[in-house]
Amino acid sequence: MNNKNVGVIGLGAMGLGIARSLLRSGFNVHACDVRAAVTEQFASEGGVACDSPASMAAACDVIITVVVNAEQTETVLFGENGAVAALKPGSLVIGCATVAPTFAIELGQRLTEKGLLYLDAPISGGAAKAAAGQMTMMTSGPADSYAKADAILNGMAGKVYRLGDVHGLGSKVKIINQLLAGVHIAASAEAMALGLREGVDADALYEVITNSAGNSWMFENRVPHILKADYTPLSAVDIFVKDLGLVLDTARASKFPLPLSSTAHQMFMQASTAGFGREDDSAVIKIFPGITLPAAKAAND
User: Fold this and answer.
1) Distance of CA 205 to the CA centre of its chain
2) How far apart are alpha carbons 287 and 148 in whole angstroms?
3) Hey, is 64 helix, strand or coil?
4) Catalytic residue among 129, 148, 172, 174
5) Which of 27, 45, 74, 101 has the fewest C-beta atoms under 10 angstroms from its C-beta?
6) What is the C-alpha separation between 274 and 231, in angstroms, rounded?
7) CB crowding 110-148: b at 16 or more within 10 Å, else e
8) In a 10 Å sphere around its CB, with 0-12 CB exposed, 13-18 middle and 19+ buried, how is residue 75 labelled?
9) Cα distance between the two ends of the chain
10) Fold (topology level) of 5-167
């Protein structure tokens, strides 16, 4: 059994799955989250509850940040009771948030200056794959970081792509993935909206598309939320306001045109402004006028 102490900061849909996967792999997993009830639940499953990133860092030489964005990453690492001040020299930070590549590069430099290792390691695959230890990781960083992270990465992911020894490459690949994910969700919503407008049975349309060439992973995964009228946020509209914003910011820096990404971003912006920002990202379909969306079905349907 591997008794290495590993810390996980953020027990959301992905972070909780990662923490549980590492427990199953034999690690002694410390965890903290702003929601004490979630941390306590994880402790009841065999994990170690920590009340702050700093207290976790004092006990672990590898910590994994599974938060939403660069701002939260900054807070849990460098803010009040942040992890960095308590980490021993040579400790490793594995950053899983979707952030701008420039942020990942700067973060790597800052941690290096403090005698710490960093692995730029965004993740993909959804909550189910995180829970099964089968998610995809897009990683980049120096050899020393990989040497320290190797067993941990194998315990939390099914596919670990090593994209180079320079911080930021992992984040570049992740935002390109998010470009496709956001465009596919927006296109899926547009297709379903047209079907509803034209009087096509929504369930039949979903069945046909998922068995035809127009299918995508996002269509197959997100459209059931629309069919069930269940907009519980597994990934919220505002996540794609952020992520497609990162895509466009990156392209703007090199004056590279992204017409489809720009349109999809505007669709998510419109949905957020209309009050759907905290709903599931499939709620982008609510921006289309003149359609009647499927209603929630009774439990015995």
Assistant:
1) 29
2) 47
3) strand
4) 174
5) 45
6) 15
7) ebeeeebbbbbbbbbbbbebbbebbbbbbbbbbeebbeb
8) middle
9) 47
10) Rossmann fold (3.40.50)
Joined together, the tokens standing for residue 84 give 């960095």
Token pair 């792509």 in the structure block, residue? 161
Both tokens of residue 183? 């465009």
Q: Please tell me the CATH code under which domain 172-287 is placed.
A: 1.10.1040.10
CB 53 within 8 A of CB 30: no
Q: What are the residue boundaries of the structural domains of the chain, listed by start? A: 5-167, 172-287
Q: What is the pLDDT of residues 162-219, one digit of tens each?
A: 999 999 999 999 999 999 999 999 999 999 999 999 999 999 999 999 999 999 999 9
**Is the fold of 5-167 the same as that of 172-287?**
no
Angle between helices 143-156 and 13-24 (to 10 degrees): 90
Sheet strand arrangement including 135-139? 123-124, 135-139, 157-162
Structure token digits, residue 86: 């308590």
What amino acid is encoded at 299 in this protein?
A
174 annotated active-site: yes
- Structure token pair of residue 214: 């127009």
pLDDT by residue (tens digit) across 56-87? 999 999 999 999 999 999 999 999 999 999 99
User: What SS3 class is residue 67?
Assistant: coil
How many other β-carbons are positioned within 10 Å of the β-carbon of residue 41?
A: 16
Q: What tokens were used for 285?
A: 């379909």
